[in-house]
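Example record

The entry below shows one chain as it appears in the dataset: sequence first, then structure tokens.
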Amino acid sequence: QLQLVESGGGLVQPGGSLRLSCAASGFALDYYSIGWFRQAPGKEHEGVSCINSTDSSTYADSVKGRFTISRDNAKNTVYLQMNNLKPEDTAVYHCTASMDPGCYTVDYWGQGTQVTVSS
């Protein structure tokens, strides 16, 4: 069964950090572009970051300089390091796998992990 499983979400104070993980099972992430999307209550899904199979990465303007995406193909896992978190980062974060290098056309979605930034 092809699956993406996110972990690492939680409650953190503003200015804090979290590292999200996206582990794949049933397929190898090596050949896919992996994206992180988030959805806040009442809002549309927002693309946060994307890393393609050549390790080229992109970020939404709202997270540039604060978030870092990386991949460990040996562990079949992609990470999203989130620093200096803000209340507006509160959302459910999903990872995706795509054959599209820009992560726009999604082949697989994970179930999501909740990130809450609050004092």
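Notes for this example: The chain has a mean pLDDT of 95. The radius of gyration is 13 Å.
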